[in-house]
Amino acid sequence: MTTTAVAGTATGRKPATMAQALTRAMRDAMAADPAVHVLGEDVGQLGGVFRITQGLAEEFGEDRCTDTPLAEAGILGTAVGMAMYGLRPVVEMQFDAFGYPAFEQLVSHVSRMRNRTRGATPMPLTIRVPYGGGIGGVEHHGDSSEAYYMATPGLHVLTPGTVADAYGLLRAAIASDDPVVFMEPKRLYWSKAGWDPERPEEVPGIGRAVVRRQGTTATLVTYGPSVPVCMEAAEAAREEGWDLEVVDLRSLVPFDEATVVESVRRTGRAVVVHESPGFAGPGGEIAARIGERCFHYLEAPVLRVAGLDIPYPPPMLEKHHLPGVDRVLDAVSRLQWEAEWTEGG
Amino acid sequence: MTTTAVAGTATGRKPATMAQALTRAMRDAMAADPAVHVLGEDVGQLGGVFRITQGLAEEFGEDRCTDTPLAEAGILGTAVGMAMYGLRPVVEMQFDAFGYPAFEQLVSHVSRMRNRTRGATPMPLTIRVPYGGGIGGVEHHGDSSEAYYMATPGLHVLTPGTVADAYGLLRAAIASDDPVVFMEPKRLYWSKAGWDPERPEEVPGIGRAVVRRQGTTATLVTYGPSVPVCMEAAEAAREEGWDLEVVDLRSLVPFDEATVVESVRRTGRAVVVHESPGFAGPGGEIAARIGERCFHYLEAPVLRVAGLDIPYPPPMLEKHHLPGVDRVLDAVSRLQWEAEWTEGG
Amino acid sequence: MTVLEQPGRAYHPAPPPAWKPRTEAAPLLPDPEPYRVLGTSAAEKADAGLLRELYGALVTGRRYNEQATTLTKQGRLAVYPSTTGQEACQVAAARALRPQDWLFPSYRDTLAAVARGLDPVQALTLLRGDWHTGYDPAEHRIAPLCTPLATQLPHAVGLARAAMLKGDDVVALAMVGDGGTSEGDFHEALNFAAVWRTPVVFLVQNNGFAISVPLAKQTAAPSLAHKAVGYGMPGRLIDGNDALAAYEVLTEAVERARGGGGPTLVEAVTYRMDAHTNADDATRYRTDSEVEPWRAHDPIALLEAELTGRGLLEEADAAAARAAAEELAAGMRERLHADAELDPMDLFAHVYAEPTQQLREQESMLRAELAAELEDGDGEGEETR
Amino acid sequence: MTVLEQPGRAYHPAPPPAWKPRTEAAPLLPDPEPYRVLGTSAAEKADAGLLRELYGALVTGRRYNEQATTLTKQGRLAVYPSTTGQEACQVAAARALRPQDWLFPSYRDTLAAVARGLDPVQALTLLRGDWHTGYDPAEHRIAPLCTPLATQLPHAVGLARAAMLKGDDVVALAMVGDGGTSEGDFHEALNFAAVWRTPVVFLVQNNGFAISVPLAKQTAAPSLAHKAVGYGMPGRLIDGNDALAAYEVLTEAVERARGGGGPTLVEAVTYRMDAHTNADDATRYRTDSEVEPWRAHDPIALLEAELTGRGLLEEADAAAARAAAEELAAGMRERLHADAELDPMDLFAHVYAEPTQQLREQESMLRAELAAELEDGDGEGEETR
Ligand SMILES: Cc1ncc(C[n+]2csc(CCOP(=O)(O)OP(=O)(O)O)c2C)c(N)n1
Ligand SMILES: Cc1ncc(C[n+]2csc(CCOP(=O)(O)OP(=O)(O)O)c2C)c(N)n1
Ligand SMILES: [Mg+2]
Ligand SMILES: [Mg+2]
User: If we measure between CA atoms, which residue out of B218, B239, B219, B220 comes closest to residue B228?
Assistant: First the structure.
């Protein structure tokens, strides 16, 4: 992927990595609104195992950035109570798979409280979930759990694919009056890109996809950790004479159908790319929707390139699981560019 | 729907309702294999809140059909341990939404134990989940949670749409060496149909869809509580001159792609029908797969008729949420039967 | 290098360096017997006005339970979990709180909400089936009735902590059943509360059953109140049918919480006289002989005996209490026999602050369906076909 | 009809009918101070052979920790959570069990598995990163190392119950950290175990920290062992660096469990000398002065002092212990420096007994990819591009 390292330093003032952009987003949100409280395991003095909350306890005190006992349902459950009292909790789940103990609180309360009370009790909660693989983590440290959250009405699901979006989307998430599951692609934490920390205020808003790369012959629809993969694939595809468009969804819920549909109608072909297992994963919804709304524009079936339909593999094998550039290009090559086609069994 | 009430009585010997078929399935499984143990809240003396375990504690003793303390993670977690020691636990989750506290055990252990141990520790567990609405239940008593389970590699997900399948699939689930989430459409519990309790041994096996009704002009793909709805819709559609095929999936995982693809390639049109919310629901996977594998056979986009993208509504409003015959017929009517078509914005 | 390699090094068996108990256990332990006041000399110190007030609330509470049960039989409520026999807990929980405090009821505790002043029709909205919550929680400082057991307990802790951090004088009282104490959320909530010293009172109504499952299959603890010591908070064991004991102990716990003393766990021993709900058949798991002794230990009878024994209750007072109860019941009948007014569009209005595009499309669909039904003249009462 | 309407009815303040404590609380409470044996006269009763055996296991354990840490620095393990300082707990847990018993280790407890006889390479498979579990649990009666905290505890209860129902003489010993006690699964597992009287021993290694979070932010309880009383099981508080105390109390608890006495909760007070894992920087949350006092309370030093003080350890014995430890370390080095042999097709082989059609398709895809890579001659060590 073509990335431009920013001329920022590694200090809080001039974040350059996605991790630093996220820290900065929380810091700015906490400075702007005393209702914003951060809580989770090890978020205080340690600054979180990924150091995303680094410095917050120091700057805002331990009452604003609080180490909790080790219990995810308790963390999210108390955050619900805090939100009922008007606070804006930002909860950190230490890893994707450790969000599962909080699933009942998420589904039965966080997602439903506004609806349950006919709007009287909104849930301005942000739940930060470092997700995905590629960092050599052992079992339970590489899950992509976004399909669960997408299937839960009442939640928003955001995920940045770039450093700039990490800042902007997290600010938007914290500002939202609805609960946001904020999925942080952990293998992009240390990525640097052309984000100007001097102008961090550009917030793309919730529910807006972006065309990351314009193209004419096919659309790659993707998000989060697969954004750089698709960008790289699009570059590589030029050699084959394909001019690929890359749509970064950024927001899985709300889903920006208009941007996706517009792109695919124009290019006539689409590949959906994500790291989460394919079966009943996010790509199902996206491909089905493209199929429905772009039917008469499609020159080929909508294909999906996804993680394998397996539990997240051990570090030494994860490279075989992750959808990489080659698999994306392979899918593109199967988009029936020839007049003659045969359909598989 | 055309149903033939069976000449069975309401006794244990001759079950006639789906509830009774399920009880019979567990009873027969317990009689056949001493490793089969039932556990859950109120499953003992009470026989479960839906009376599905009625008589089992009496016949097999409380050690084989056990009232547990009130803690779903504990129930499923202990069942995991029992399975590690060679038992075949059948766990009852009292209602769909009360399965959520057990989500971590399900995703992190039940679904992964075999894989984790390279096959050394299989999980022959059945998790019975009464699901879906239409019975006037209050909040948390009408969820359709199958999307979560489908998105979890390592689990099988079965759901009967008929009384006969209830028996056969539950026997197959209990016999399976892999964990099965067995989704029981609670509003069909009291349905009666042409099942001969004298010949209950016909087990369709796991992973096989069935064509419930043959037709030529379009395929309805459905499962569980929506099977009778689709059968009724197919009957009603005859008046409009449509001859609809109805595919009952029975098994959501493994997914019987062959049966679905064969049908849709033949009819050229498909509507996927389920009660779970549409967005990122089971229909996404199904429609995407049809779109991919039947692309050149399709005369119209694959449509989905599903529950609304909302938390399950209160009893007095649930009729507006549930996909009924009219919505199915409406979708069928939108399958671009005219030569001219316009595509919605 | 091991010690062995250091010749001459003395061996000082020191205690593990960091060990000290974080708090003394003994003061946290509950009484060995449930605490009672009524019928003892301690009751004589109680304010007569308070006793009469509690009595009136109990009588109204009993009538409320009866009326709700009748309405359910008449099909006006979808389901009703009765608190007949548990009125003392319900009333005491409500009365122990000040206006600024919050109540976190479980699905069974509609009476506590009503005793706190909530309109019964609002309290019963969930059980009637027209919406999930019938009131604005913040307005009444009553959290939504909570069906997933014990999940409301961390909410109470979080809310109390938020108030504490803001410097507000607010206590949260959270109710849970004996069955609910087995859930992980119970454990996590109590632990958070104790570690953070949040102003929360946990009230366990031990009514003997979780649907059909008796307490002996739920716990092997000496009492549920004994769980408190494992969190470092005091446990109190009380006779939950003794309205005065319940009121006293809960009030004390609320006081303690506001004074910065942290949370308290109160187990109120009571009994569920009715079936689990109208849909349940209690004869499947308990005999009438088990229920019988509890009839003699009825919360109303206990308080009434105290009052009459001490000449504090005139027939006129009792009549007034009954009249107030009847008035409440009449209002329930009148208003719950009327059909609920429902707007199907509410289904979409509150999923998010702003509906998604998908929801807007579904809203249009339903609007069109309703319009078509109206045209066909069969809009009302039409079932999903 | 109320009592008031029954003139003349006597008022008998009876206790709540069903009340009796299910068990006496006092015998369940832990000692106020962690139980110690080494350095006291009680230690003199201990079998010298046992002490030497424990000593050897501790020395090997320490060496194992050092070697694993070194291998991690060398990139041969993906991550290593050390038990340096906790060897007495690890060793005692393993030694307290009989061959037919089961060990349920947490992610940190590879040493306990090794002390039970598991090949270190198998024990370290998870942490090396070639597969999730490196052994057949049933063969060794060691459950997979469990990463999601406290989730292994209900497994232990279920397994022990299954064995009990089958009439097998099997005890399960489950290990968890101080942090893990805050999880709901801890609560649910202990409650199930107590209600069902399953033969389980719960060993909490309280090593002072959950990553960076100190015990004081984890609990306000007098001790973690005090949690036992809330489940109706005995709680034992022990010095986790005293190998003999740990061995004695765990053995006793195992005995009790097999005798039908039900579960026990043991809190072993110890200290995590190293950082949480190699990836952690402990200086961010603790000073060296906090760690210092624990160096004097080292489990090996304690036992060594006992042995040498009583003349039970010759230099030859110590040398033999060191030699055995070095042998283990050498084996680890040799075998873990070799590259793991991996079959990518394993990714599909064990998801289900029978792969689904989708998995078979994905298997073909990967097989084709690998074949193509091999053809391109760049198969090995190729990163996902
Ligand atoms: C998490 C969860 N699991 C199961 C249920 C189903 N359920 C409703 S009430 C009940 C029994 C509750 O018993 P208890 O906590 O003692 O309260 P009580 O009904 O006696 O007031 C059960 C199992 C539920 N509501 N929530
Ligand atoms: C359910 C869950 N939540 C979070 C984590 C991440 N995590 C790994 S170890 C750890 C701390 C564990 O502390 P403790 O239980 O005291 O065990 P120790 O590490 O001290 O052995 C945490 C939070 C996890 N593994 N599982
Ligand atoms: Mg109860
Ligand atoms: Mg620890």
Answer: B220
Quick one: which atom of ligand 1 is closest to the CA of C178?
16
Q: Yes or no: say if A21 and A52 are a contact pair by the CB < 8 Å rule.
A: no
Between positions 155 and 214 of D, the ones with CB within 8 A of A are 179-180, 182-185, 210-213
Considering only CA atoms, which of C232, C18, C22 is closest in space to residue D240?
C18
Distance from CA of B286 to the nearest CA of A (A): 8
B309: Cα separation from own chain's centroid: 20
As a whole number of angstroms, the distance between CA C58 and CA C218 comes to 29
Between β-strands A36-40 and A88-92, what pairing exists: parallel, antiparallel or unpaired?
parallel
Beta-carbon-side half-sphere exposure of residue B98 (alpha carbons within 13 Å): 24
D3 interaction partners in chain C (CB closer than 8 Å): 298, 300-301, 304-305, 308
- pLDDT for position B14: 52
User: In Å, how far are B55, B84, D159 from D166, measured between CA atoms?
Assistant: 22, 13, 11
Distance CA C49, CA C36 (A): 19
Q: How far apart are the first and last CA of chain B?
A: 36
Task: Give DSSP secondary structure letters for B49-110.
Answer: TT-TTTTHHHHH-TTTEEEPPS-HHHHHHHHHHHHHTT-EEEEE-SSGGGGGGGHHIIIIII
Asked about A296 being catalytic, the answer comes back as no
The domains located in chain B, with CATH, are 13-194 (3.40.50.970), 210-344 (3.40.50.920)
Return the number of other C-beta atoms located less than 10 Å from residue B31's C-beta: 11
Q: In terms of CA atoms, which chain A residue is nearest residue C142?
A: A84
Burial A277-295 (b: 16+ CB within 10 A, else e): bbbbbbbbbbbbbbbbbbb
What are the phi and psi torsion angles at C238 (to 5°)? -135, 160
Give the pLDDT confidence of A141-164 residue by residue, as tens digits.
999 999 999 999 999 999 999 999
C-alpha C214 to ligand 3 mean position (Å): 8
| Chain C touched by A118 (CB under 8 Å) | yes
Closest ligand 2 atom to Cα of D147: 25
For an interface test with B, give the residue of D152, D200, D350 to mutate (most B CBs within 10 A).
D350
Taking only the tens of pLDDT, chain C with its 385 residues reads: 333 333 333 444 556 676 777 788 999 999 989 999 999 999 999 999 999 999 999 999 999 999 999 999 999 999 999 999 999 999 999 999 999 999 999 999 999 999 999 999 999 999 999 999 999 999 999 999 999 999 999 999 999 999 999 999 999 999 999 999 999 999 999 999 999 999 999 999 999 999 999 999 999 999 999 999 999 999 999 999 999 999 999 999 999 999 999 999 999 999 999 999 999 999 999 999 999 999 999 999 999 999 999 999 999 999 999 999 999 999 999 999 999 889 999 999 999 999 999 999 999 999 999 999 988 875 444 444 4
**Tokens 């009439």 sit on residue:** D167
The first and second tokens of residue D315, run together, are: 């230099």
**Which residues of chain A neighbour B118 with C-beta distances below 8 Å?**
none
Q: Can you tell me the distance from the alpha carbon of D144 to that of D164, in angstroms, rounded to the nearest whole number?
A: 21
A15-29 pLDDT tens trace = 489 999 999 999 999
pLDDT given at position D385: 42
Give the ligand 1 atom nearest the CA of B41. 23
Two tokens at A50?
């990924």
Identify the residue whose C-alpha is closest to ligand 2 atom 6. Answer: A94
The residue whose CB lies within 8 Å of the most ligand 2 atoms, and thus the one to mutate among A42, A70, A105, is A70
Of D280, D229, D300, nearest in space to D86 by CA: D300
- B partners (3+ CB pairs within 8 A) are A, C, D
Residue found by looking up tokens 């995920």 in the block: A159
- Contact residues, C window 230-259, toward D, CB-based 8 Å cutoff: 230-233, 239-241
